User: Which sequence fits this backbone?
């Protein structure tokens, strides 16, 4: 064991702990869920250490530099696939190939630093889908152990604590107890086109709820419409990442330490099937053991199951908290359908937030179509470099380059993707990361129902673009080959310890002082954008965990 | 990353370029110290990675991909300097170097097949270069997209990486790096 070095915090007066201090909670991950839990548990009076794989960057480190954001070894906002690759195979019979298949935020604030910030609530049906729609063959669709009603107060908490802009009253939104703290962001050209198309088709375009401030709120500035959201860190703190909305409040309690550059490799078990803390690599790849009374995993839908599978013991030879065999299974990324278009005039996607109008008319797709699930549509500008069937280089291409770049629009549907048991994360038997840990192996083949659903939504996207008056519309596309940023379902929540990993309090069925709160908790994929629900779960879990701790039942 | 995910991404710049370029995307990592590099390098300075022949070949091919007409093209954007710098950063990765050399070999072989005794694309006449590239794009899509992806990335990525010199790429597509805007943003929210 080496001497523990204290990382310098960009925030003043941060409380620090020694690894030998038995803190109340260690939280693994500081992203959408971890940032919320740190804030809530520290404010409830608990001592907290947050271990984050990546560095602690702030506005001064963020840039509008695309290549650096992707590839810079110290300033990249995502994991570097050279150090932390994954392997992928469609079916068990294949040998998985190494590459970059997923993308997750690897900085303090996690993916909320570089995300696009679409904040959709799940409609009520999402939580009771098995009962209301049945279970398609080959899928593991189940009801959640909680309902929309249970989660609603926490969705509202996300709106107000995190800072979400939007307009209440969307007829397709589930009931909300309170409006938004700040009004919607200004409409953009693609939003106007979305309204135009929707009106023609009898659909309803509505201001998009976004975790980006349209007005100053809680000491943070309003969006300046720089146009650099997805893939970039916000330089004015208008994007409501946990980095700016939660972490400062957590640190201000003087009970919470954020420890960046700390890559947890093992959850340690003591007697009586209880967790005693975690072992992590510090910045210099030295082993550090941080003691804790309880551990919360918020590492994301791939890293959380990976960590459990790495933490085998005599009692848990198949991975910690995995008596059900469900750890890593039911992997979902969210389904997709869409189409692209060129319009006659400029859209200029490179100004303003990515989405200003959404269409939620299809959360429940007519059953008679033989489809299962539903989803929502958005329209967003697409900076393109070519158009199918047109020259991709040369003089003619050059005369069109500005049109491709400025006049492109995509209609994108974010839709149901069914949980399937064989779709999963496990440990690759061969490949290791730069720390010598087994890398996650993804096995994924989309359920045939999802391919149909994606195609149907892709056709709706096409229809919308045509109705909006596009000059050229692409073929529709739909379905998912697996991969992306939305990492869901791999430690599902449920009442039955035989078929789920955590209970409705986010406590693992097997280990009383081990909790899991992140995208892995999802039972079904949602019908759109997952981060809002991850954070509602996190606010709710923090309440439940605090109650359990105060009742001395952890 | 699966194609659908690439399509879904909304990064504004470069990404579209890097996404099409197996050359660049499969070999990530560092781009440090590129800042202000090529902008400060006079064209006659020696290359770090390229041989003079490779530089000449890539200059010729990138100048056909984004030609100079009444507005600047890849040549004025210093795309060759951008790629030389990028390749130099990755020159310790034998797989990367092999891939780059292989792309040039594929090009040279294809040229030699067309004009026996000559392996140089740059040595072809302007009309022959265009005819050759049209065929090459169809016959060797992977190698072609490597050249095109590198050209696009060098043309439109942030000038600190050495390409997009004097922001000529951004001027071509109408992008302004002001990073602070108020509505209207485009045509349809103005009218």
Assistant:
């Amino acid at each position: 064991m080496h001497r523990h070095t204290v990382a310098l915090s960009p925030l003043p007066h941060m409380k620090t702990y020694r690894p030998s201090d038995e803190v109340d909670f260690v939280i693994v991950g500081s992203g959408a869920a971890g940032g919320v839990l740190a804030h809530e548990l520290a404010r409830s009076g608990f001592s907290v250490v947050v271990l984050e794989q990546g560095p602690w960057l702030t506005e001064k480190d963020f840039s509008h530099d695309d290549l650096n954001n992707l590839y810079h070894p110290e300033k990249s906002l995502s994991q570097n696939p050279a150090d932390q690759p994954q392997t992928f195979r469609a079916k068990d019979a294949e040998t998985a190939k190494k590459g970059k298949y997923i993308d997750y935020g690897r900085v303090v604030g996690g993916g909320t630093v570089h995300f696009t910030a679409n904040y959709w609530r799940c409609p009520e049906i999402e939580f009771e889908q098995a009962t209301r729609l049945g279970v398609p063959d080959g899928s593991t669709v189940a009801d959640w152990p909680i309902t929309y009603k249970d989660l609603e107060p926490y969705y509202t908490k996300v709106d107000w604590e995190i800072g979400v802009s939007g307009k209440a009253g969307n007829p397709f939104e589930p009931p909300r107890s309170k409006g938004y703290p700040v009004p919607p962001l200004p409409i953009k050209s693609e939003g106007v086109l979305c309204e135009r198309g929707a009106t023609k088709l009898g659909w309803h375009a509505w201001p998009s709820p976004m975790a980006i401030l349209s007005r100053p709120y809680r000491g943070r500035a309003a969006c300046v419409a720089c146009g650099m959201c997805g893939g970039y860190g916000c330089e004015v703190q208008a994007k409501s990442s946990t980095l700016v909305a939660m972490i400062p409040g957590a640190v201000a309690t003087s009970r919470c330490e954020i420890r960046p550059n700390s890559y947890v490799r093992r959850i340690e078990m003591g007697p009586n099937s209880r967790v005693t803390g975690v072992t992590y690599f510090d910045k210099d790849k030295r082993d550090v053991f941080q003691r804790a009374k309880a551990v919360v995993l918020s590492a994301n839908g791939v890293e959380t199951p990976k960590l459990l599978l790495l933490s085998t013991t005599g009692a848990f030879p198949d991975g910690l908290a995995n008596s059900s065999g469900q750890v890593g299974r039911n992997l979902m990324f969210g389904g997709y359908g869409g189409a692209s278009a060129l319009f006659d005039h400029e859209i200029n996607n490179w100004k303003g937030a990515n989405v200003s109008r959404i269409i939620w008319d299809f959360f429940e797709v007519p059953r008679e179509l033989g489809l299962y699930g539903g989803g929502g549509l958005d329209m967003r500008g697409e900076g393109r470099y070519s158009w199918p069937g047109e020259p991709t280089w040369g003089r003619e291409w050059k005369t069109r380059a500005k049109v491709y770049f400025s006049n492109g629009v995509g209609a994108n549907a974010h839709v149901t993707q069914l949980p399937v048991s064989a779709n999963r994360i496990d440990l690759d038997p061969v490949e290791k990361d730069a720390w010598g840990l087994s890398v996650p192996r993804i096995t994924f083949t989309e359920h045939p129902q999802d391919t149909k659903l994606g195609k149907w939504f892709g056709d709706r996207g096409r229809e919308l673009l045509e109705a909006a008056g596009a000059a050229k519309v692409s073929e529709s596309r739909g379905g998912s080959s697996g991969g992306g940023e939305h990492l869901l379902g791999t430690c599902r929540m449920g009442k039955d310890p035989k078929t789920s990993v955590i209970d409705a309090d986010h406590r693992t069925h097997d280990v009383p002082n081990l909790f899991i709160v992140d995208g892995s908790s999802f039972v079904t994929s949602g019908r759109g954008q997952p981060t809002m629900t991850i954070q509602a779960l996190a606010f709710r879990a923090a309440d439940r965990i605090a109650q359990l701790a105060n009742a001395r039942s952890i | 990353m699966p194609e659908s995910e690439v399509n879904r991404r909304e990064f504004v710049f470069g990404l579209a370029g890097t996404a099409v370029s197996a050359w660049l995307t499969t070999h990530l990592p560092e781009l440090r110290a590129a800042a202000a590099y090529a902008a400060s390098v006079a064209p006659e300075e020696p290359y770090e990675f390229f041989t003079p022949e490779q530089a000449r070949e890539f200059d010729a091919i990138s100048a056909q991909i984004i030609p100079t007409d009444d507005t600047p093209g890849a040549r004025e954007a210093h795309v060759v300097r951008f790629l030389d710098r990028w390749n130099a950063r990755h020159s310790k990765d034998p797989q990367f170097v092999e891939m780059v050399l292989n792309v040039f070999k594929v090009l040279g072989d294809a040229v030699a097949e067309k004009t026996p005794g000559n392996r140089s694309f740059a040595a072809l006449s302007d009309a022959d270069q265009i005819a050759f590239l049209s065929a090459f794009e169809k016959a060797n899509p992977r190698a072609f997209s490597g050249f095109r992806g590198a050209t696009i990335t060098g043309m439109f990525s942030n000038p600190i990486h050495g390409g997009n010199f004097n922001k000529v790429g951004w001027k071509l597509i109408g992008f302004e790096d002001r990073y602070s805007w108020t509505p209207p943003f485009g045509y349809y929210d103005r009218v």
